[in-house]
Amino acid sequence: LIGGFPGELSLSFLHRNSNSDKLIMESLKKNLDEKGGRNSVLHNCAVVSHAYLNAGTTNDTFLRDHLDWMRKASNWAKFSATTSLGVLHAGHTT
């Protein structure tokens, strides 16, 4: 873990330059819910996609706004959903 001033600079840079669009995740969630929302593979793909979109930025507002949707994860998808939070907060040590 680097931490300290270089870690703060890295986090600041990632957060400031993040161009992820919350509307993409909103429309993906809406489409999954319209299709029945019970396909765990597609649900897991959406969660992992969110992690990739916001990796290292500590931007987890979509997940916080849709905790009920996150709870739909089952079996190993719950593990993936939890690790996606780790991907979002990677490098944030303070």
Number of separate helices: 6
Distance between the termini: 11 Å
Rg (CA only): 14 Å
Q: What series of H and E elements makes up the topology?
A: HHHHHH
Number of strands: 0
The biggest sheet amounts to:
none
Proportion of residues in helical segments: 55-70%
- Return the average pLDDT rounded to an integer: 82
**Outline type:** elongated
Strand content: under 5%
- Tell me the quaternary state: single chain
Structural class by sheet pairing and helices = mainly alpha
Q: Pick out the low-confidence regions.
A: none
SSE topology:
Elements: H1 4-16, H2 22-34, H3 40-53, H4 61-65, H5 67-70, H6 76-88
Helix pairs in contact: 2-3, 3-6
Descriptive account of the structure:
The protein is mainly alpha-helical and 94 residues long. It has helices at 4-16, 22-34, 40-53, 61-65, 67-70, 76-88. Helix 3 (40-53) runs parallel beside helix 6. The longest helix is centred in the middle third of the chain and has 14 residues, at 40-53.
